[in-house]
Amino acid sequence: MPAIIVRQGLVSEGERAIPEEVPVAFSYSGSTHAVMMATPDDLEDFAVGFSLTEGIVRSAVEIEAVDVVEAGNGLDLQIVLRQANAEALSARRRQMAGPVGCGMCGIESIDQAMRVVPSVSAADLVLSLEDVTTATSALQDQQRLNRRTRAVHGAGFYLPGQGMVAVREDVGRHNALDKLIGAIALGGWQASAGAIVVTSRLSVEMVQKAAIAGSPVLIAISAPTTLAVRTASEAGMTLVAIARDEDCEVFTRPDRLNLKGISDVA
Questions:
Q1: Annotated active-site positions, please?
Q2: Residue 95: what pLDDT?
């Protein structure tokens, strides 16, 4: 994209790579359920992940097909559900429209916003601090779109012994996480066996989505909110935040991190 560039007092004409942002509609049985502003990549993953985190389906196998259709200035994800799921959705159908970064647009009550999330307490995943460092570094390294634009969020799935097995990007942090959750489901990985790593702050919606996916560890380079910490604690999730270089802060379930050999400072 052409731009006027100012650097150290000098003005020049140049080019800047910037990400796409388009309306993406989620349609079930021919009716639009939601519209999100998003990066138009990995749309099948997005459709599956959104359907899972919204509770429309419990498994990717309940989605029979996803068709991406151009619709004016945006894209329409036409999602075909199994009959039982389609009937359940029609009984609770609601409309919502969400700008970038809004993870709860269309929520109609406080109870919906404060939904009870699944417990991940039983997961026996244990990570080393080296795993945390490796995971955050790998996410940064594999964010190809962000490397070009410096304008998108990333979410990755890290498996101990295998490394970062999937990364998804989007202009919206919730969208990036939904895309990743879809990729995990379609890729056949068990979310309980690894950690989800994100580049954004940890708000409650990010914790809710990770718990629904079944991941017991959520790692972020930024800080959490108090509600995110409380929700992670209730779900039995390990919340690692402000993970930069070799430093991090652990807010819940520190037993999933091997902290042996690290000196305690009173």
A1: 102
A2: 42
